[in-house]
Amino acid sequence: MTESAGTPPDPDRSAADKDEAASRGGSQDGPQDNSQDGPDGEASRVRWWDDAAPARRRHRWLRWAALAASFFVLVAAGVGWWLYKKLDSNIRTDTSAVAELRAYEKERPASVVHDAENILIIGSDSRAGDNREYGRDYGGSQRSDTTILLHLPADRKSATAMSLPRDLMTDIPSCRTSDGKRSRKQFAQFNWAFEFGGTACTIRTVERMTGIRIDHYMVVDFNGFKDMVDAVDGVEVCLKEPIDDPDAHLKLRAGRQKLDGEEALGYVRARKSLGNGSDTDRMDRQQRFLGALVNKMQSDGVLLNPTRLYPVLDAATKSLTTDPGLDSLKDLYALVRGVRNVPTDKVQFLTVPRQPYAADPNRDELVRPDATNLFERLRQDTPVTVVPADELARRKDGNGDPSDSTSPTPTPTYSGNNAAADLCKQ
Description:
Family: Belongs to the LytR/CpsA/Psr (LCP) family.
Oligomer: single chain
Transmembrane segments: 64-84
Largest sheet: 9 strands, mixed
Strand order of the largest sheet: 1-12-7-2-3-4-13-17-16
Strand content: 15-25%
Keywords: Membrane, Transmembrane, Transmembrane helix
Protein name: LCP family protein
Distance between the termini: 125 Å
Region (Disordered): 1-47, 388-426
Order of helices and strands: HHEHEEEEEHEHEEEEHHHEHEEEHEHE
């Protein structure tokens, strides 16, 4: 039935309409939510959605960015840890030498200066394994092709590397051999000690000769040296004459040139085709080249650049056999960190004072008392001055004494070089 204008509203219908309105979210009585009806309500809903959506998107991107950053941090940490463990596992530890030295502790010299360190670096001439291309391997025997006593003073403001000639005649103690027997005590050329009893026998021989306590030692093979040179992209040298030495696997033109690892190895090992053919001349060449290698690493910022340092560390650690005190990357890093700020002109190289052996000019003997004085200065951690041989000769010709005569305690001066010297200006 249709209601007329004058007909009163049906109470039951009015109540039903109110219930239906309430079920739609609104009420015909009381305050109304204007956001739900009319033009103003529709605009309000749009504004609320426009404000909330970008905020949700921003939060979502922040969460993804945080997750991505966390992932990359974990990956970087994992790669870093893997590289660290790889370098660490490259290093070989020689525990047998430690045991042998412990058995002779009572006869070893005592350390004199706290924090000063003496490290014996032995270049092995073994032809076993990867080194067989450099000559025949006679039953796995090896001798020390190069031996350097590296002295690091307590203040770490300099470094002195003293070479010991392999043909130097000296007293070699009775040593335990690789087959468990013992060699006899004898007077022989120095590098036989490494063949007789390895690292321990070499250390005992050096300590008896010098009176200097050896704190640590490293044995480096041919390939390690070669790979280190390649890792720094070669080292420049200057040659007055061309070289053609099949025994050293070396053929080079005269003049300035950069040597790669293989060429550098031949250059520092060559004996018959360079200079006067003596071991002393070869050691002088080795010292100059090592100085140039140190200079290259410092001047090119290799030590401060992890990307460039890693290949050097990888090459070095793969070739190293050390005592337990240097057999981890942490130990080696602590050693390098202590000397990385040493100026290159304070990294000195010299050969122990020597002369041809009276009984055999093809062998060497120490010059006394010069050698004794040098050993004592290193043992007491006192300064040593090193100058090129020609400058030392001029000082002797001009003054009769290479030391500074105006000083109340003259510093002895020895023939040698430093890492700042240019190989092409000598």
